[in-house]
Sequence to fold (598 residues):
Amino acid sequence: MRLSFGEKSFNALNYAFLTAAAATMIMPLLHLLAMSFSSPIAADSKKVFLLPVEFTTGSWAHILQTEELWRSFGITVYITVVGTLISMFFSLLTAFPLSRREFLLRKPVMLGIVITMIFNAPMIPFFLTVRELGLMNSLWALIIPGVIGTFNMIIIRTFFMGIPGELDDSARIDGCSDFRILFQIYLPLSKPVLATVGLFYAVGYWNTFQRAVLFLRDPSMWPLQMKLRSYLTTPEELAAVNLFLGDYDFNTTTLKAATIIFATIPIILVYPYLQKYFVKGAMLGSLKE
Amino acid sequence: MQTDARRKRSENRYLNNMKKHWMLYLMILPGIAYYVIFKYVPLAGSVIAFQDYQIFNGILGSPWVWFENFVFLFTYQDFYQVLRNTAVIAFYQLIFGFPAPIILALLFNEVRWMLAKRTLQSLFYLPHFLSWVVVGGIVFELLATQGVMNQIRGWFGFEPILYMQGERYFRSIVVLSGIWKEAGWGTIVYLAAITGINPNLYEAAVMDGANRWKQTIYITLPSMAPTILVLFLLNIGNFLELGFDQIFNLLTPMTYSVGDIIETYVYRAGVLQGQYSVTTAIGLFQSVIGFILLWIFNRLARKSEQGLW
Fold:
């Protein structure tokens, strides 16, 4: 097909604009990566762009030897793994009945859930409720108060509703209980959607911040994002640990860059693998019923 | 008598259903418990906005003061500042942030080279998965005195600007960083809507001599309208809820005057200083405004097309 001059120039402009905008998505991360491997003098003298200047691993050596940071990393890994498993389990349990026509409470319960998407409980009563339950200063406060993500649960439900009913009719004739239908018939069929929702939950737990701000007063329990935040606001604290090691091949700028990248690496690592799933999943969750 | 019989029958229907599918009812229990405890109980707990809530007496033992907290709010200087900041930022986000994914989706739609399209999309989706702490860190780093932005200004001989400390820039930074992080992700829903458009429509339009611009205006956009409308309504219901993480991670005491929003203020005054009742009153006020806006716009939407209800 031959394109008119107008179309050609629009195409050129469109590609140029989208490419430039897409570059801004990745360049800040590359810049910080370059910063984290640059010498403190180069970092502070406005020389570093996308490649390290006066390459050094000083900042990385420093933060990788910071026990506090590893501790919060461990806490985050823990709540991500445990939280994602628990969230998946309860989301499946909730989504399954809500996907079945023979469940008479389907509509009222669904309505009750959708209402909570429109009316968020105010922060203080939510805070007081969680505190009354004795979850203050407990890692459970990062998991239980948000254990079911409504959006994620709806994604699962929508997927379940697309599974043909004949499948579980025949299973029922064979004497399968609803529980077994869910875990032995529906689950194996739902791998793509489970991967998507699992990713959403895992990212959510990895990035947990507000609940940690609200409920964890004890800094030794802080997950990675909280620790990162405290290092970004008072980088001197990070610089001050491990000083006995001698080598001052870092400063607050390069340390900050290294900690930001450190907290982002896991997400960057899983992103390419799960990408093929999540778009479909996100579409499933959108605007059905 | 007749209605009694009917009620009896429907009771039986439920009982039989429960007996037959008791496992489904058992399965839903944890979910219901979760929504009741963590969504509805706090919603009901909002009554402390009408009390002088004392932590040791609880809701039942605290004295009722009815509208005293609200009267206090409306005569309180800080409240107006926080409300203004919230409303102004929310308004900017609606004007600039809401259309961003729509425009981006339309531009994506014009990319016909699939490999390029997919590569671009993966890059645009990425920031959605970063936390606001990380994005805040990136923003502070790029806009620091020594940061890239000021480096570039330096090439042209301009003086460095203290972006993050400047009241002038804060709201733009909030809106732009929000677009940067979420616009790409937001395109997914719109692209799904575009995929659902009947290709015959385009063919017919081409026969009538419509170019790509005309196809976009007369076919693509109108076909996306229901999706846009629903998302707009959901957005408007949470109009004043900007997202704690973003503002909290961009805010510094120097920018409180323009950037302190309801959620960050409620956190400081409520959670940190224990002024539970007054800050709950603010939260309730926020929800009520959201509901009123939703109601108004839903009515308007129903007049033209379909609304949320």
Q: What stands out?
A: Chain A has two domains: 18-56, 67-284.
